[in-house]
C-alpha cells in the first residue's frame, strides 16, 4: 500500500509540473519579449533550438562512441548509459519552447555540467530499484543458501488462479 501512495505522489508531482512549467515558461517569454521585443525573443528561441539540436547531435555521437568502446572492451557501461539518458532527457527539454527548459536541457547535455547531474540520475534509479517501484520490475531475493529464487519474491508478480487448467488431448503420431 505504501508503494501505491508513493507512485500516486510522484504522479501528482508530475501532473503539477506539466501544468506549472508551461505557465512559468509563458511568463518568462512574455517578460523577455517586453524587454527585448517580440521578434528578437522569437529569434532567440529559434537560435537556442538550433544550437541545442547541434549540441545534442554532437554529444550523442560522443556518448554512442563511448558506449561502443565500453562494450567492446567488456566493461560495464554504467556511466555511458547514464550520459546517454541525460542527453536524451536534455534533448527533449531543448525541444520544448522556452528559456527555463532550455537552461535545464543545456545543463544535462553540456559535457562539463553533465557530471553534476549524473549522480542525481543514478541515485534516483537506484532508489527506485531498491524500493521495487520500477515499472514492471521483479526482484528475486536469495534464500539462506544463496541460491536465486530460494527466498520470497518482491515486486509485481502474477498469482496463479484456481482455474488455470487448460484441458486438452495428447496425440501421439
Automatic annotation (TrEMBL):
InterPro entries: FxsA. Keywords: Membrane, Transmembrane, Transmembrane helix. Signal peptide: none annotated. Residues 137-155 have a biased composition (Low complexity). Residues 164-173 have a biased composition (Acidic residues). GO terms for cellular component: membrane. It comes from the Bacteria. Residues 137-173 are annotated as: Disordered. The chain crosses the membrane at residues 12-32, 38-56, 85-110. The keyword Transcription regulation does not apply. NCBIfam families: PRK11463.1-2. This is UPF0716 protein FxsA.
Amino acid at each position: 500500500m505504501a508503494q501505491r501512495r508513493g507512485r500516486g505522489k510522484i504522479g501528482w508531482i508530475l501532473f503539477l509540473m506539466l501544468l506549472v512549467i508551461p505557465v512559468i515558461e509563458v511568463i518568462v517569454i512574455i517578460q523577455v519579449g517586453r524587454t527585448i521585443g517580440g521578434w528578437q525573443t522569437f529569434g532567440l528561441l529559434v537560435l537556442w533550438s538550433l544550437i541545442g539540436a547541434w549540441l545534442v547531435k554532437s554529444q550523442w555521437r560522443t556518448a554512442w562512441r563511448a558506449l561502443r568502446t565500453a562494450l567492446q572492451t567488456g566493461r560495464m557501461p554504467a556511466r555511458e548509459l547514464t550520459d546517454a539518458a541525460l542527453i536524451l532527457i536534455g534533448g527533449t527539454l531543448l525541444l520544448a519552447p522556452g528559456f527555463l527548459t532550455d537552461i535545464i536541457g543545456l545543463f544535462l547535455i553540456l559535457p562539463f555540467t553533465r557530471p553534476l547531474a549524473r549522480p542525481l540520475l543514478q541515485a534516483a534509479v537506484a532508489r527506485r530499484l531498491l524500493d521495487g517501484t520500477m515499472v514492471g520490475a521483479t526482484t528475486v531475493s536469495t534464500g539462506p543458501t544463496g541460491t536465486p529464487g530460494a527466498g520470497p519474491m518482491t515486486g509485481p508478480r502474477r498469482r496463479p488462479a484456481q482455474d488455470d487448467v487448460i484441458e486438452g488431448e495428447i496425440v501421439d503420431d
